[in-house]
Amino acid sequence: MIIKIKSIKKRDFGRLVRYVIKDSESQSFILRHNLKGNKMTDWIAEFEQNENEYRGHKRKNATILTHEIMSFAKEDNQHLSLKILKDLAHRYIELRGKEAIVLATPHFDQAHTHIHFLFSGIQYKSSSSMRMSRTQFKDLKQTIQQYQMDRYPLLTHSIVWHGKGKKEIVNDKEYRVITRHGESDKQKVKRIVSELKEATMSDEELYEKLRQHDIIPYTRSGKTVGVIYNQRKYRWRVLGVKAKERSQARSQKGIEKHR
Fold it and tell me: At CA 238, angle to CA 237 and CA 243, rounded to 5?
């Protein structure tokens, strides 16, 4: 699975709550943690009340909410029942911070299934922040994925080797793409590269399989340094591939060359 987090600085409770639950239907589910109400207007009011009454030092750029997205590979859709999604969502909340106010529900409007979470910026009835360090976030991703692998081994396409790249905090532009389309091009390329890199034995095999996804490796100074997708280049380091893992092959047949 891929975990993405966007820190929300604006007091935009209503819009975000409406967005998260927009696709929830009778056959889906809505998880509420530390929320007492039974309808959307109640939940919006409770997020606002907790922020207004319990935040201590009111800084201009304080994180009011975090919008967090857990996404799975489309190839695993056939194995993702509501029971599994609900269990993974519950476990994520326990690991991420059950001290927060949380609203969560799955979305099925894209090719791949994903779960949206809204976490309060501070703990429930407390001024303590829900902020995570880089190390804590890395541990969270690895722990929730290990739980997925142990409990639901059929989700083979949704395994990502976390901890090899930068923290998955999205910028404003990428966040807008994700909320519209569910997965940005960068996320898609990173996921496919990670999956194929673990499943292939040689550089040539990896490059061939990438081409099948319209992801074209490119070289600079005779060395493969990244890939091209939708006319945009992505260096290995941006995709979370460490320097020692990059290909050292020279001008291999069929690789596009860009100077």
Answer: 5
